[in-house]
Amino acid sequence: MTSLSEIRNRYRADKDMTLSALAKSGISTRRVNGVLRQLAQLTDATLKTLWMQADLDQDFSLVAVGGFGRQELFPKSDIDVLVLLPNGQSPQNDERLRHRIESFISSCWDVGLEIGSSVRTVAECLSESAKDVTVQTALLESRLITGSALLFQSFRQQFLDACDPKAFFVAKVLEMNQRHNKFEDTPYALEPNCKESPGGLRDLQVILWVSRAAGYGNTWDALARSGLATAFEVSQIKRNEALLRLIRIHLHLVSGRREDRLVFDLQTAVAESLGLKAPVSQTTFVRNSELLMKRYYWAAKAVVQLNQILLLNIEERLQPAPQALMPINARFQDKSGLLEVTSDDLYLNEPHAILETFLIFQTHSGLKGLSARTLRALYNARGVMDGKFRNDPVNHQTFMRILMQREGITHAMRLMNQTSVLGRYLWVFRRIVGQMQHDLFHVYTVDQHILMVLRNVRRFFMAEHAHEYPLCSQLASGWDKPWVLYAAALFHDIAKGRGGDHSDLGAMDVRRFCRQHGVEADDQRLIEFLVREHLSMSRIAQKTDLSDSDVIAAFAARVGNERYLTALYLLTVADIRGTSPKVWNAWKGKLLEDLYRFTLRVLGGYAPAPDAEVEARKREAMVTLALHAMPFEVHKPLWDTLDISYFMRHDASEIAWHTRQLSRLVKTDRAIVRTRRSPVGEGLQVMVYAKDQPDLFARICGYFNQSGLSIQDARIHTSRTGYALDTFQVITQSPIDNHREVTSMVEFELAQAITQRGPLPPQSRGRISRRVKSFPIPARVSLKPDEKAQRWLLSISASDQAGLLYNVARTLAKHSVNLQLAKVVTLGERVDDTFLIDGAALQNNRAQIEIETELLDLLKA
């Protein structure tokens, strides 16, 4: 019998020899896959020896699972094994068996194998995999090392027979989305996890897991043979996968532990380990670590694109259904809410269609993304986007139309970046894709920071985000050209990493852009000013004495007028918020607001409390109140409890109506329900005012559902004093004959439904239209945190059906999720609802997945 020390020494020597050969190859990825297999094979041989020495019967099986199961073993990864027993065998009931298994596991650790072990019968494996998708995934990649082949084959067959590919696909995609949320939904964090982050190795593994479960193959070449991937895509996947694997191997070797994060402390060491060195002529501007991270980010970006393409392809094949193909124009069509090209070679033949893709995506509200066919066509058309493409006047016009749209700017620009179109159209932007910022102030790469700032500016113009930064929302509501701010956001940091002052260089870039794209002189001067001065307001606010009148006077002279000041203030707040969730705080906000108000006074303007639009609504509402002979200042008790988002989301007539009904009932203990004819279209407008409670929205929706009233619009608002003030537009299935009788009934019965205790009514199984049956719309649920992870945005897209909103509300109430705002939109046969929610359950990943799964199930039902 070979001693454990001899086994250990041989294993270490063979492992070191394998890794040293890889180290000599530097950044070359040719050997990396072979090295991972060799490490797995060395481990296999050692485990076989220890299995024999433990005198374990050939009636049992030693099985590799997880990454080890797919013969992919990294230097410091755990070695996951399963001791598989026949049904009826149990170490608890067999002392000799228990001793031998313990001896085997102990000897593994003694020779230096860091194993993660489990001991289960076949029945226990099947039971656990049915309950836990993580166990199911690990067993999906199981591989026999030694022992009974018959037992393993029997287990394997039973496992595959029990596996539901569709359910597995949904579970893994939900799990992936939650993992992406954890990493801010970006592969560009400054310290990414090369295994778990978006664009990491796990995203590639997900593709192979769902493909293997569905029987489409467990290798990239098998996916190509099955028609799910093209030969070009497979070659790109293999190249980027090898690079990510190589980086992970060197991370393990440099850190001496299982470390998958490219933390700052290790980036330079890993770069040097890979032989990456910046050219001498560039050492002033480029670090070795930047070369490494640039390679990593480009690989991760490609993985994100390919992951999306292949998962959409697999989903379409797994869940074939009649597709609702609606022509948009000669080039594009709506495929069940996804934008699809009409031909695979569209972009090669008509390059103008590339930017048109994103304009159509913006202007068609029912579109939620790009289809696999469109993504694939864009991926293959990158060579078309050359200098001629960038200088084409038609493309200039299309890009400006994208920038000037009222909605969808953030989604369009992010999608353009994800598909590599933005960097190929704006060549200066391409330079900063994956560009690191070596400070703790920014937690994103330059391109992602820019898109985050663009998002923040856009949110100032959206009523549902008015609660975040009220003054910014107030100012934005009176701004006439939002696209000017979007352009400034897009260029404010575009010259990072070139050396010199990036603000001045960026101003030169944006001046060139404006001239090329036909921007008027006044707008060009403002955009250029914002790019050049985008750091000045935060610097002055945080580093000077704002009580010094000379400081304020100098800053006022610098900005020149109120328009420039307001634009700079909005960009500055958006910029600071876009650096890191931890950077912005109330104190910085107060300093910037003080500087804004002090400077505005010097410029001869005034510091607005609410914005002009909100003030106009209030004045109009007060005129309406006066016409109804309401007392002077009757509005104050109610209005003092409401914030800016309320006034931005209700028109003057609604504000006046609420005020008339509630002015003397602001602190009431009972539920107040008032109903009137809808001011717009048919149906009723219903107001509910009551102390907020977790299931309030569900009870309201439940009442409407049982009463045959269909909710067309819901505006939910919670006052500063904890009262819900909700307004609903509802319609009946048939015309209302006796309006007074119906309104009295709704006011009485809904108030009773709100105040009653006990369980909520059961879920509704609403009817769906024949059109929806023939052309089902894929149900989609998205749950994403806000930047402070305290509130969440829940987006739901599905086929419309009776009782749908109640079922959603009931699910949220079941998990004690509170509703802050609701935006209900019905587009023909499709509903696109957005909810701002919070609750303790949302802080737990497992609970999040459970909520999303339940919502998906009820939407599909």
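^ that was protein a. below is b, sequence first then the tokens
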Amino acid sequence: MALMGHLPQQSEFIEAAIDSTLLIALLSPILYLFLFHPVKQHLRLREQAEATLRKSQETQLKDMLRTSLDGYWMSDAQGHLLEVNDAYCLMSGYSREELLKMCISDVEAIETPEDTAAHLKQLMEMGSVNFETRHRRKDGVLLDIEVSANFAKYDEARVHCFLRNITLRKQGEEALRLQSEITANAAEGIALIKASDSTIHYTNRRFESLFGYAPGELIGKHISIINAPTDKPPLDTATEIQQQVEKNGECSGELLNLRKDGTTLWTSFHVSTVIHPQLGKLLITYQSDISSRKESEEDLQLAAMVYENSSEAIAVTDANNQIIAVNPAFEEMTGYSEEEILGKNPRVMSSGRHDREFYREMWQSLIRDGYWHGEMWDKRKNGEIYAKALSINTIRNRDGSVHRYVALFSDITERKQSEELIWKQANFDTLTELPNRRMFLDRLEVEAKKSDRSKLPLALLLIDLDQFKEVNDTLGHAVGDTLLKEAAYRIRSCVRTSDTVARLGGDEFTVILSEIPDSANITDITQKIIDRLAEYFNLGHEVVYVSASVGITLYPSDACNIDDLMKNADQAMYVAKQNGRNRYSYYTHSLQEAAQKRLRLMNDLRCALAQNQLKVYFQPIINLATGRIYKAEALLRWQHPERGMVSPMDFIPLAEESGLIHEIGDWVFRESARWAQRWSSQFAGNFQISVNKSPAQFREGSGNSNAWLAHLQELGLSGKHILVEITEGLLLNAEHDITDKLLAFRDAGIQVAIDDFGTGYSSLSYLKKFDIDYLKIDQSFVRNLTTDSNDMALCEAIIVMAHKLGLKVIAEGVETEEQRVLLTRAGCDYAQGYLLSRPIPPEELERYLSQHQP
């Protein structure tokens, strides 16, 4: 029994009856105790009178409860029904006998027995409550009940409840609420306007949102506030509509209206009159937003203008694909007049370039999707073939059948020609007309898929022309380009028409040999390419020889993806170059391991300098005539934390390849200069340290000579304290910037030595041109030096030639006393090697110098 709070008492009569009963029950024992015995007879007579009165009142109360239209029950404090009237029996559908066997919770529809017990306890504390609840009839129907409950604790703790069926009232209230809610939330804007002054009395939510106002904001405003000014003021417009309503009883139409933010919208409106009991005559208006429809109408007008004035050709056909309408652009583009083309099938303009499959797919798309977009070649009336971009859309009837086909197209002939040119430029090398890298990768993807289907391997050949840079640098780029075109022709002539030859860039070519049944064919084709490229090239007035290094890898045995296949071919080609060039090399897994080792080593090298893993060792150089040591060669060493000592032969090429040689070379120079300063002050004023300078340091901008010279000045050293060692190959390919750097060293007093002299392409003219100071005899000539050996003759020749040119000679790799004696007799100036000392850390060299200086 839900307690809804206190409400006013229901009936004064019922209160009086209950109060009399309670009063009598309370006063009887008191009178008995306090009145004297002589009046006992009087009291007995009074009690009889009161009993008669009480019985009369109870009879009246029972008659009232029996005839009442409201239900009544009486229950005990535990909720058991003790008495019910006929009205509640009729209301609940239960008989009196059934109800007197039930509890309150048996008829309550929204409570549990626990809830009822809690509410009875609360009622006993409060005394009386009025509330609304719901009961369930015997037939299951739910009733809305208004309850007035009283608790009489002096009447054996009885609960008296009067119950009124308010179901119809609640249903009426709900109907009114729903009606109000429907109006408030109607899709149309609804407003009530006072006819007397045209002010707005009511608006629903849609009306407010339609014109951009907050709830209630329009109330009291003149209706003209929503009318947009056109050729007449808003007030005149509102007045005119009201006059039409007074005359005809209603008015409908379309109107340009005004939102609160100043924007306009089109609405359709209907205005009629209603009579309100208190307010009198009102106008009710319904407003709907038709802006979209108005825009559509404008769009239709615009579409008609576009149709007539469009630069795109438009043709409309019926369901049988017969032309029923064309626009002027169609006539101009195709050459057909409207009279000539109406009733014809568009196939009369067919160019014949498209097969039946093309048209079949086009019609399948139209049937399936309702549209088709694409490009097509057609024929004008004069027979000229042209390209057009075509869009066809299907217009259907309501039943889904085809009503019309609309085709729009434009002439794209010039664009197609430009695209073809751009495509060729994007996919082919302009010099050799071979596929470029982009087209090559696409072809390789296609051939790999073919190989998967046929189960036949494909071979990828990576070809690099040896000595091409020398040709380009000495004879010029024009001759180099001619050589590349001839090389492309020769490679193409060695392969099948089904194979792909591409130029990746520079002097790198690649060949895809597809679906090779026998690996012997790969070797034959590769050797044929090498032999053809080794033949002389007659380039105008020049005859040039080059060779080729070729790397070969197979799909899918070596790799199953394009990136790995390219890396494999590159590694194999690199091995072919290392093995002497003018040859081929197949990829093997050991090459992959070596490449991975090189990659890891290169990554480690990047942090070696920062982590102090690089050290400069020094090997002393002795003056053979005096036995004095005032020269030493700086040699770089790498103490790897895991690999131990890494050979310079392994990491110097990586440093050159990665560009780290500049940073490392500059560090070696600064370390050498620091020790040169120290040893010059301790042992000899002109102590000189030889520093190797890589060709890569000369060819690229960093590590320039000016920075070295500035550092020497900071240390207070002259150029004579540093000797720069270079290779013969650097002089052979010397460019202007290399020449400038060598001459800058000479001008600063820094001497230059040619390392490993006799192993490369020696030229006496270079020795004179660059003012070389020292020649270093390679240890390969010194290693087997004996009195009558050829190596002795070569060493003597080098020494005599050098002295004639004013150069000094340093012999490398002196390991025995015999070698030292022979070189001294031959007039060699200096020697270095294990006979004197291995390369050692600077601290050890310092102790060595202290012990061996005279």
